[in-house]
Input
Amino acid sequence: MAVQFTDGVVVGADSRTTMGSYIANRVTDKLTHVHDRVYCCRSGSAADTQAVADIVHQHLQLYSQVSGAPPPVHTAASIFQKLCYENKDALSAGIIVAGWDKEVGPSVYNIPLGGGLFRQPWAIGGSGSTYVYGYCDATYKEGCGRDETVNFVKNTLALAMSRDGSSGGVIRMCVITEEGVERLFVPGNELPQFWQGSEVLPNPKGKAVPEPQVVPMVVE
Amino acid sequence: MSIMDQNGGSVIAMVGKDCVAIASDLRLGNQALGVSSNFQKIFPVTDRIYLGLPGLATDVTTLKERFRFRVNMYTIKEEREIEPETFAHLVSSTLYEHRFGPYFCEPVMAGLSKTPSGGYKPFIAATDLIGCLNFAKDFVVAGTASEKLFGVAEGLWEPDLEPEDLFETISQTLMNAVDRDAYSGWGCVVHVLTKDKVITRTLKGRMD
Output
């Protein structure tokens, strides 16, 4: 996911790569540098998104050499869009492009499966995103600062990682501002904790239902 | 995606010195969505036999009730408790009855069988979903993380582990194997059976 705030953007992702149900990599880095102040979050087929990100990285290196200035985030997002739209039949790639540039400031662009380009204040993607749309809609506020935004990203990712089997591992975040890029890391045992569901609701009379005892079956 | 991956879950049983241990995760999912972190898959059959049932959750519940009925009928007719090896054959024949429309479960059993001299011998067994029996001497595994369980168990198991050491070994095997499986986890439970008591412990693990 990526979220815009006053001075920059926060991009964040989990670290799980699966092949079916096997967790092939539990410490993946899904936040990919395509330029000094432009990062992308990759979801979908790992091979497809890595290949597309490499091509965009090359384009942006050429752009900054030719123009002498860092590329606008919109330009980077448009190159991603061109590749995702024109190869839509072959690719399985959901990409979020986010960064900071001098003309516009911070911006977040969502490029879902069909290859459309959508600028949004915050964007979520990947299989775990479906479980946290409600949380994000209820919690996001405009005009937040860096720390509030980092917390919002951390909590959203932790909730998705808890419910979605295809998400998990550690949380990786990048805070991108005019000054630079700061990488943040939250290990698995320091994730924010929410309701885990093993408590039993008390019955209507107000007494707690006792824990069921594991006893052998009744045998004469 | 196979029907055995619909709900997720894994079970392992291991043999120790005059003891057995059986352990499972606690996850019930709807494909990738985790639904319950409290879903029991290991059931006591008698004081000395425990049955683990990983696989499709509806069949876990149905089979547990079917076996409860059949074991009660055995006890009434035979006027004695069923032995682990006999129970394993009961499981096998129950599953084979549905050879061409099977229950989507791969049962794992752990128990202590009576010897003629009056002592107790550790016993483990597993079957596939149509009742093929496997009497292993070391450990048996089943569920979505079965391949990972094989790998870790092969590395960590050694013969003649005391109950406390067997608990550590089976716990590490299960926890590390389910951490590599997207459809198992969300908490673990371990039962260690010795001739005079059963100790049940719930483990705190990764909840992702």
